Predict the 3D structure of the following.
Amino acid sequence: MTSESPSARRRRHAGRVSAWVLGGLLLLVIIGGVWIGVRGILAYQHLDNARTSAAGAAEVLADPAKAPALIERISVDTSAARVLTDDIIWRAGEQLPWIGPQLAAVSTVSSALDDVASHALDPLATVASTFSLDSIRPQNGAIDVSLFADIAPAALSSTEALDNARDDIAGIDTTVLLGPVRDAVAQVSGLVTEAYTGVDAVRRASTLMPAMLGADGPRDYLIVFQNNAEWRSLGGIVGAMLQLHTDNGRLTLTAQGSSEDFPAYEATVMPLSSEEEQIFGAQPARWVQNVTQIPDFTRGAPIAREMWLREKGVDVDGVISLDPVALSYVLEATGPVSLPTGDTLTSANAVDLLLNGVYQRYEQPREQDAFFAAAASAVFASLTSGTASPSDLLSSMARAGYENRLLLWSADAAEQAVLDGTSLQGALPETDAEVTSFGVYANDATASKMDYYQSLETVTTWCGADRGQLTVTIRNDAPSDAANLPTYITGGGSHGVPPGEIKTVTYVYLPQDSTLVSSTAAGDRESSGFGTGIDADRDVLIWTTQLAPGESMTLTVQVRTPRTPQIVTRSTPTIDIPAIPRIASGCDIPG
């Protein structure tokens, strides 16, 4: 029998050692995989529990004192998920190809959510534990301005922390993620952004409200009411006006006005740029009714302020704009109010009564404006009486702001800067790396109140990698016998438009730095072509329509511009503007 040589024995022994080493490594990989898998499942369960708990955040609006307990419940789960995705084995797995980015994304999301729940919201939770919305309810016509002293710094701290969490999540490279992981990251990003938006709104409000309520000295504000029955870019012509005086939280109405009080000024009360005059003419700065023709409240509000100064002698500290639809939202919080005329104004009848019924009843503009002023005064009295539910009132104002029906401009540059980027500012929409924005602003050219019967609909979509599409449909839904409506409603043909028909001039603002590819109009009338202009570094198409009852026209515009995650339109808030603008899935736009 041949004995095994020493070298053979050494090779066989080395083979056994290698096998054991490889086996041990394989076992470690299996154990590590199981470890990561089990901890990943547990982390997912905790994150899902946190998401479920977060669904109860709406209750906090009605009772902020519930916030600490809710945040504590969420924090327990987010902390557990963070621990489960932050040990040495998990971190080692993050270095592996393919699976590594998935693990890193889960770990980043878990850490970001825990930072939000365990730290970012702590300052506000501390304030909320002793705060009740009932405390901001007016007492004897005044609001306690001291309530905002603790909220502002806490909201600022929470906003900054939430912004950091947003940045952490935004830093995840989603292109290498599996579909389920990518979707989860997008969902968490949306939740954190939503939280940031809400807390940032609290920061802005708590910063502005003390000064606006006269904490640092008396203030005066001009409140203008836009009439959506006669379209202007920002909603409608300016009709009734009120002057609001604030002093250490006390609110009083000190003056009323009507568009009838203002002349057609021979020259513009403030200079307009050559670009503005090319598109809008001199009207926005010569007629108070037209200050909302420029689709940017930061430009129109100072003009309204100057006109009020000239006719009423008061240099107001800011301008606030509302429309009857916003007023109907407020009435949901206050409940019905009684008017001197014997009418009862409710959330259900406010729009119809203020935008149509009043013209059926009164022929003279001064009588109509007096009715509007009486309605506004009655709602104001109800608000300052303290009977309205604060949470319902906040919800109604938030809805009005979201739909661009509530606008605010401050003459104080620092306070105005607090509004930057919010819908309350009423500025032109911005296009950036995240969103491509069109603007669609309709203006009545009939000198009528027929827009009560007219609808405006916009739809946006992407057509490939670098082409965005917008469609705008305007439809005259007036009754077939609209020509028999009161002359003040139809315009009586004063501008060459037959009674019952509606002429509209629409300004279509293209996204910044985009290139127009095509623009076509089709429908029940021949297209009259398009005018063009430039405003605020945006190309503008000027589209004119004239429609009889039952007729409609549709404009389709395509532009070349880099594709972004979102494509949206900001448009004139009409009576029935949808809460969420329509977005189509392809270039075949549904009718």
In short: Confidence is low (pLDDT under 50) at residues 13-35. DSSP finds 16 helices and 17 strands in the chain. The first helix runs from residue 6 to 54. Residues 227 and 236 are 4 Å apart (CA to CA).
